[in-house]
Each structure stands twice: as C-alpha cells, then as structure tokens.
Write a structure and sequence with these properties.
alpha/beta; seven-stranded parallel beta sheet; 8 helices; globular; 7 strands
Length: about 240
C-alpha cells in the first residue's frame, strides 16, 4: 500500500476553543460581505470608482474638483462608487447624487476617521478591506484617483497590479491633479523602469488629467470602438477576480 503523502493540517494546541470557533465562523461574515456586494452592485452599470483622501476639507479646491468630476460622470450615465466616507469620498458621492445616476458608498468599519457621508443612494458596510477592494474593481468601467494617502495608493497599486497581471480587465486609470502625481510617475520611470521591475508599456495604463470634462471624455474615448459591455473573455476574467 502506498504511503499517504497528502499534507496534514495542524491546529495549534494553545488556541482556546472559543478562539477556534470565532476563526471558523468568520468565514460566514466574509461570505456575506461578498454576496451582498455582488447582489447590490451587479446591476449598477456602467460605473466609475473614485478614490482620494478622507482628510480633504469641504472648502479645499480638490474637494470641489472631485465633486464636479462626479457630477459630470453621473450626468453622463455613470454610477459613481466611492469609499463612502468623508473628504474626497464625500465629494464623489455628493457630486454623483446631484447628477442623474446612482451614488454608491462602500463603507468600512475603522477605529478612526471613517464615518459614512450623507450622499449615498446605495450604501454597503464592510469589515474587511479585501472584500471591499474586490467590489471597487469588479464592476468598474474606470478608476479616477484623486490625491490621497496610503489607502488611495493601495487602491491605485491594486488596480494596476490586477490589470498588469491579467487578473482584471483593462480599464482607464485616471489620476487627477498633476502637481500631486507627477513625482510618483517620475519615480516609476526613473526607478521602476530603470530597475526593470516594470515594463515601459506598463505606464500606458495611467493617464493624468485635471479637467472634469476631459476626464469624462477620456473614458468615453476608451470605450468608443468597443462599448461598455465586457467581452466573453473579460466576463470570465471578472468572474474569477
């Protein structure tokens, strides 16, 4: 009889039963977050995910710029998806709500900072960043990224990685406010490309655009010859995201 070489799973003996039970049941909360997200967002099409700092004041020109971009996207027929919190997220939802298309917030429970804004037609609450990040990507026809901190950079890196590796379909990724982003793009060119950690064509995934009308036009230009509907290949990619 051949020896069974299948890997065995060892549960640490020092973990109390209550801890093990909580760890096991946590999977159902994670499943619930995905199911609710899929059910509520699958019908929202086309949509644009907008990111930016939660710390941007309401009288900041960047807040007003995000609000204008979102309103124009909403009037153009795009649902707008933000993180549901204050700052740029609030501006995105506010602009979308004043337009013709749904305003969506993907909120998350955090110890500090994150409180839901009042401009959400559809509001979802997440406990887990990874589930929330899937929802930002899965149904988006474009990404618009305003100035922000680590969370904004995380979302930007996430979508670029997924597109670069073929795990998500290619969509427009638009950075807004050149003075903020030009240093990062320069570093990509001078450090990452020079080191060979990315290919020069990877930078073609990104555009920097500062005018609201041009942001909307760039998205329409991208889909002009193909339409917003995903191809069969793209649907399969998104299904396995």
């Amino acid at each position: 009889m051949s020896e069974d070489r299948s890997p065995s799973i060892s549960i640490p003996s020092h973990l109390p039963d209550s801890r093990l039970s909580r760890e096991s049941w946590k999977i159902f909360r994670i499943m619930a977050e995905f199911v609710e997200g899929y059910e509520k967002l699958a019908r929202i099409h086309p949509s644009v995910s907008i990111f930016g700092s939660a710390r941007t004041d309401r009288d900041d020109p960047l807040y007003l710029l995000a609000e204008e971009i979102s309103r124009k996207l909403s009037d153009a027929g795009f649902s707008v998806v933000s993180g549901g919190g204050p700052g740029i997220m609030e501006a995105a939802n506010k602009g979308a709500k004043s337009g013709n298309s749904p305003s969506i917030g993907l909120n998350i429970k955090l110890p500090d900072e994150q409180t839901g804004n009042d401009y959400q037609d559809i509001s979802l609450m997440f406990h887990h960043f990874f589930a929330r990040k899937v929802m930002f990507v899965k149904y988006a026809s474009a990404y618009v990224v305003m100035p922000g901190g680590f969370g904004t950079l995380d979302e930007l890196a996430e979508i670029l990685t997924l597109i670069q590796t073929g795990k998500s379909r290619r969509i427009p990724v638009i950075l807004v406010h050149k003075p903020f982003w030009s240093g990062l793009i320069e570093w990509f060119s001078n450090a990452l490309i020079k080191q060979g950690t990315i290919h020069p064509e990877d930078l073609e995934l990104i555009k920097i655009i500062d005018k609201p009308d041009k942001v909307v036009a760039a998205i329409f230009d991208y889909y002009e010859n193909r339409g917003f509907e995903a191809s069969e290949e793209e649907e399969e990619i998104q299904l396995n995201l």
